[in-house]
């Protein structure tokens, strides 16, 4: 499918989750095997000839395609979650939001020293969450992190928050 065809499947939801926001609903991209497979193929294309040891999905929509990417790349999958949702010893990082702070966690020892990680999330907006996730992955021992998104809201300049190689298939 072309970028235009995929964009036609993404639905704009005005005033969600709050007034003035136009939410990009990617649910339609999950609706059929054909569409899901096409999205995964487009997401994975830049990494097919690169070593990827781990795919890390950011809670929670980053889990959707992240698991499929890990399966296709034959890589381990780990979850990057909000505080208090992972058992056992964890690593944590906090980051600033426009209205306060938030935190992300991964399980300790989920990344081995020198692992190459593909970070995945559904949307790259301001880049704060992705930048925090990259910091966390590197603190855990990742030697290299690639960042990968279904869609990117370019007008918010999220790529400027981090220097890692970044790929998105739908740009707005």
As laid out across the biggest beta sheet, the strand order is 4-3-7-8-9
How does the overall form come out from the CA principal axes?
Answer: globular
The number of strands is 9
State the separation between the terminal residues, measured CA to CA.
17 Å
Structural class: alpha/beta
Report the sheet with the most strands, covering strand number, pairing sense and barrel closure.
Answer: 5 strands, parallel
Question: Which percent range fits the helix content?
Answer: 25-40%
* H-E order: HEEHEHEEEEHEE
Q: Would you kindly provide a written description of the structure presented here, covering whatever features stand out?
A:
- The chain has helices at residues 3-9, 33-44, 62-73, 128-139; strands at residues 11-14, 22-25, 54-58, 76-80, 90-97, 100-107, 116-124, 144-152, 166-171.
- It is globular and about 40 Å long.
- Helix content is 25%, strand content 34%.
- Helix 3 (62-73) links the parallel strand 3 and strand 4 (76-80).
- The chain has 172 residues and is α/β, with parallel strands linked by helices.
């Amino acid at each position: 499918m072309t970028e235009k065809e995929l964009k036609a499947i993404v639905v704009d939801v005005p005033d969600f989750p709050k007034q003035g926001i136009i939410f990009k609903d990617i649910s339609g991209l999950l609706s059929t095997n054909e569409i899901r497979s096409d999205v995964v193929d487009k997401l994975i294309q830049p990494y097919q000839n690169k070593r990827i040891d781990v795919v890390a999905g950011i809670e929670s929509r980053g889990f959707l395609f992240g698991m499929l990417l890990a399966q296709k790349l034959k890589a381990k999958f780990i979850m990057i979650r909000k505080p208090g949702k992972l058992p056992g010893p964890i690593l944590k990082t906090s980051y600033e939001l426009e209205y306060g702070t938030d935190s992300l966690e991964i399980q300790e020892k989920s990344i081995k020293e020198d692992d190459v990680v593909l970070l995945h999330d559904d949307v790259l907006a301001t880049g704060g969450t992705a930048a925090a996730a990259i910091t966390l992955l590197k603190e855990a021992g990742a030697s290299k992190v690639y960042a990968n998104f279904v869609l990117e809201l370019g007008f918010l300049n999220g790529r400027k928050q981090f220097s890692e190689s970044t790929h998105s298939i739908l740009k707005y």
